[in-house]
Amino acid sequence: MSGAALGLEIVFVFFLALFLLHRYGDFKKQHRLVIIATLLAWYLCFLIVFILPLDVSTTIYNRCKLAVNSSPAESNGSYVTLAPSKQKCFKPWSYIPDGIMPIFWRVVYWTSQFLTWILLPFMQSYARSGGFSITGKIKTALIENAIYYGTYLLIFGAFLIYVAVNPNFNLQWNQLQTIGIAAANTWGLFLLVLLLGYGLVEIPRSHWNGAKRGYLLMKTYFKAAKLMTEKADAEENLEDIMEEVRKVSESIKYNHPLRKCVDTILKKCPTEYQERMGRNMDDYEDFDERQNSYPSEKSLAKLHKQVIYSVQRHRRTQVQWQILLEQAFYLEDVAKNESSATRQFVHTFHSQEPENKIIQYFYTPTVEWYWECLLRPWFYRVLAVVLATFSVIVVWSECTFFSTKPVLSLFAVFIQLAEKTYNYIYIEMACFLTIFFLSICVYSTVFRIRVFNYYYLASHHQTDAYSLLFSGMLFCRLTPPLCLNFLGLTHMDATISHKNTQPTAYTSIMGSMRVLSFIADGFYIYYPMLVVILCIATYFSLGTRCLNLLGFQQFMGDSEMTSDLIDEGKELIRREKRKRQRQEEGENRRR
């Protein structure tokens, strides 16, 4: 089985990343380079999360071998003397041969760092550029990222000058590399704690609220009112942009040098607008070179960029509106069926998509009623309690993992107990569940947050290229410090445990943070304690209340504005429901 577990997880994680990217991205319409770059970024980050437990179990086995082959005098009282000299070490089922993991981590880490700091920012600007040629897009991307890359070079150059002038520093290449890693991890840890503090509270709370049918329905009405406003704004913006395109198309005729640029813009417009513009245009009219009212290529590139953005936004709001309608109709059906005496789930509307026959056979109306009206609320409550328990353990461990005597971090206690008996299955499961829960708290926040209309991960293939690439950047910057934080919680990091033991292959690639003692002994240990303050702020919805005060409507049960939007959304859903019913009645009459 040597290396087999590693190979299986590499394949599994690839398909997991591909599945998630397919859910959010659009393979048919988005550029292949955007899809490949985002897939690679997500894949490498997920690999770190899934492979790290195997690294931990392999390291514990290697420590056991060192302890068996070493005498107490040779170990200098270190942790390796805990194993008796005659104890037999059992090889874990997922053991990875020596030399593989360091190479694997080095390739994964440095590739992800190249993506997040150099390639993906460039591709973001390239994807948003309205240029009509590859050269034009590259030029625009380089100009937009000049300040971004120049800042890095300035900081790095100032640091090199400081090291060269200061006689107390005698840094070698490995130490410079470690400092670079520490700087990247420090930036990532700063953002990590912010996202983690939100996810530790919001994930259990969202599942607990998921058991409340009335709460979900009211929130859906609230979302409907907000989405209708955004949908109307997107339609109005698209109309304005299409009007500009029409004027440009009418002014630049078929034999104008910039006509190719106009044709490129027209191809990005919705089909109905293309047909409308084609009917109203006379391509046989020559242009007059003496006129000075023709737009420049630069202005056409700007218009091209606006067309791409407005069409994407309009399409996204249309799809999201249909999905939200289906959710609202279904939640209203659940509320009606809860008092059903027949205990059979009855839908107001038939599903527009053909259902799987196997699912239809097993998921009968009776089974659906018991699940939706009886079992699902209790399942969500139990799951919320389990997740809340995990959150409490994480918060406690984040505040106490620096204590080694006694060991207060519960994750470190669990791992050390399993290490004494060399129960590798338990070690890997405990490590995987811990890091998986931490990842869910952080990654789910990345998927939920929305920065106006610039960054927004929308499911059902509605995420634009800029947001996909930005998510890849965030994942690559957050995952390495997340894994180092996990190793600190479990005391597998010698910097935290203060024991002279063999480090994990992942830690060895990160280098010894003792080069920067103020970061290793200060920031990395005490900054994660801020997660307590962030959890309290999230629990009392301080961020939501602040956004509400600033005019960004958020769902709050005690807000008058929320009540007004709920009533507005309820009326919108009622109108759409009547419209759908009239359509079905008309189709039934024609049959």
UniProtKB/TrEMBL annotation:
Pfam families: LMBR1. It is found in: Membrane. One of its GO terms (biological process) is adrenergic receptor signaling pathway. The keyword Cytoplasm does not apply. The chain crosses the membrane at residues 6-21, 33-52, 103-126, 146-165, 177-201, 378-396, 425-446, 466-489, 523-542. Its main location: membrane. It is a multi-pass membrane protein. Keywords: Coiled coil, Membrane, Transmembrane, Transmembrane helix. One of its GO terms (cellular component) is membrane. Residues 224-251 form a coiled coil. Belongs to the LIMR family. This is LMBD2 protein. It comes from Cardinalis cardinalis (Northern cardinal).
